[in-house]
Amino acid sequence: MANSVFNEQKVIVFQLQDKEYGVFVQNVKSIEKVDHITRVPKTADYIKGVINLRGVVTPIIDLRKRLNMPEKEITDQTRVIIAVQNEMEVGLIVDSANDVVDISEDSIEPAPSVIEQVETEFIKGITKLDKRLIMLLDLEKVLSKENQRVIEHEQVV
Amino acid sequence: MEMNQYLDIFIEESKEHLQSCNEKLLELEQNPDDLGIVNEIFRSAHTLKGMGATMGFEDLADLTHKIENVFDAIRNQKLEVTPEIMDVLFEALENLEEIVLSIADGGDGKKDVSAIVKKLQAIESGEQIEDETAENETSREQVQDVKKLKFDEYDRTVILQSIEQGFQVYEINIRLREDCILKAARAFMVFELLEKHGEVVKSSPSVDLLEEEKFDNNFSVAYITKEDKDFIRNSLLKISEVEEVLVEKVNVEKPSTERVQQSVSSIQSNSSQQTAASKQTTVSSKQSRQQKDSSKDTSQKQKKNQQKTIRVNIERLDILMNLFEELVIDKGRLEQISKELNHSELKETVEKMSRVSADLQNIILNMRMIPIETVFNRFPRMVRNLARDLNKKINLVVTGAETELDRTVIDEIGDPLVHLIRNAIDHGIETPETRLKYGKKEEGTLRLSAYHSGNHVFIEIEDDGAGINQKKVLQKAIERGIVTKEASETLTEKQIHELIFASGFSTAEKISDVSGRGVGLDVVKNTIESLGGSITIESEEGKGSLFSIQLPLTLTIISAMLIEVGNEKYGIPISSIIESLVIKKEDILQTHQNKVIDYRGKIVPLVFLKEIFEVDAEDDQDYVSIVVVKKGDKMAGLVVDSFIGQQEIVLKSLGQYLTNVFAISGATILGDGQVALIVDCNALIQ
């Protein structure tokens, strides 16, 4: 099975609403605990604000809100995943993040059109690992500014 | 390739040499007779050629070689400096610049230079000079005809004076054996031997070419000595591989004194600008040589000055700046801690550290300062080309090029300035005929100046052209729907002028490729405002316009007033604050739609940050804290909850994800590690 080793990728697994999601490890810079977030006025509602990440001002997105899920209080388990995409660094607030798994590329399947409660447009694919179902986040969509504007617009209307 | 490590240095130095060639060429255009300038260009071109050849950029070396030849011809007065030649030379320099830029961008420096090389060759061959093939022919001819060496007025004077002082002047033609391998070494030995007994005043081909072995098997020199002909001939023949030596006395006719004085005085004026060494008024060979030496001295002096500086990679300076920013943040934190602890020794230490850090900040900021010259440099040629393309006569006067600005500002300011200058030349300055008709000097003047004032740098672009036609501007603005007809009647002169910065505005009747289609002045304004600066116009119809740009000295570390709204902290740049005040709630007046205050006799509208920034907090205070800010002539009062104090802060961007946030120009990290947003006052004042 030398081939599959070659195709395996590490994925950071995090939880949202008791479901498991994943992002490829090369897109993750670090995982942080939630510190003081400074609100930035007049931005989309899912943009929580900015934090001081070791001297770099980094925007923070509430991933629950971004995926149209109900908000949840910040707990001890809450983490911020600092994701890197197209040279942009953005923090994503998730319920918890505590696992790294290897996924072979063959096992990734396209996302079914309907997943309970969740916007499927942000899901790149789905993979099964033993009995776990992991949804791979499409970072490009999550961080796209077009969507940012659309939602801002909706807010104004 | 192992040359890679030298590539950066090569690119930097090439750019410098090209720049100096450019400047000198412009100077030469003004004083075509000044051979001092020609010599300097020749030197720069020669270094460039050497560097290009060493780095293996053949096209670059080839082209520079041709340029060098042309200058050599000018230097030897075989060529007159004519506008046509200048045009070709400028074109050649442009080609060189393109090559260097392509190398800088990682290219291979290859470019088809045959067209321009042909042009250069045509200039040369018009007067027969040593380009590679012609060179061989001439040298071959020299065997038969020794009188081939050509003397210019200057050489002739030297020779004449030497003869008067009892020296002998010979023209020596030396032929090396066909199978000679180290021709340059032999030539060197010949020179060394000759220098022992006299002085070589001229050689053909030039010494540089001899050193590079760019000659056939023979060369000629003009030689001043007290020894006799046979002695020289015999000593030279002792050098191995020298096959034949022809020595002949040189006779020169007396040159016209007028010419000589002219050339000498030009040399004088050249060197006296740099040193006070030249007081000579009469012409003698010794003095001329002394002058030569003195100019050599100055160039050496300049070199010494240069050696006191070192090249530092800009990246390193950026890293230093970033580290220092971290330090400033930590300093802020320490200050806060020491305030809380109220420990006297800690306080003292922190205060001392603050002072040191302030000094350090000054030094680091100064290190990042670059004279605006680097931007201004490219303008003389641009103006020249534009003036030629548009058939206008323009005199560009540049002052204050030594004014220093932060590198980040320098990087950004180039394009806006180009735009404004193009604008001034295209729309501002009229054609010579029109100017004469209006009783103006045929030649328009474009003044470009820079100066420091307080914490700001001002850059001004002034032309004595047509000025802004207010009627036309208004008409256009109404046509384009920028203002309504009713509103236009109440506009002040200044406001009308500012209309030309509105987007989609062009008053040029003819669209030219010079200043585009009117998209641009708004971009200019935006760029300058994004740098924290401002631009204003003064203009009088028929007399000219003045564009004045005000820029901050530095961008990253600024003084800011920290304020609190609800429980959120914001910073307001001190540069836009006029005053902070606390007034009674009853003093707030209500106009038609706005709340205003009476600030020193002026009605100033209030902006409630709480509403703008959507902060949840009740206000039941009897007193209101207000920060009065300005944007140009306009003012506004920002209503806040409380003042925290003034602090040096490091301005940081919100990152690439959050762009164009309303009324926020960036963020900073406070002493307690939290992020505070910086208010963009320009966006809040309408």
From TrEMBL, chain A:
Keyword Cytoplasm: yes
UniProt xrefs under InterPro entries: CheW, CheW-like_dom_sf, CheW-lke_dom
Subcellular location: Cytoplasm
Any GO BP: chemotaxis
Protein's name in the database: Chemotaxis protein CheW
Keywords, ordered alphabetically: Chemotaxis, Cytoplasm
PROSITE patterns the UniProt entry points to: CHEW
Keyword match Cytoplasm: yes
Cellular component GO terms held in the UniProt record: cytosol
Pfam families: CheW (PF01584)
Limits of the CheW-like domain: 8-148
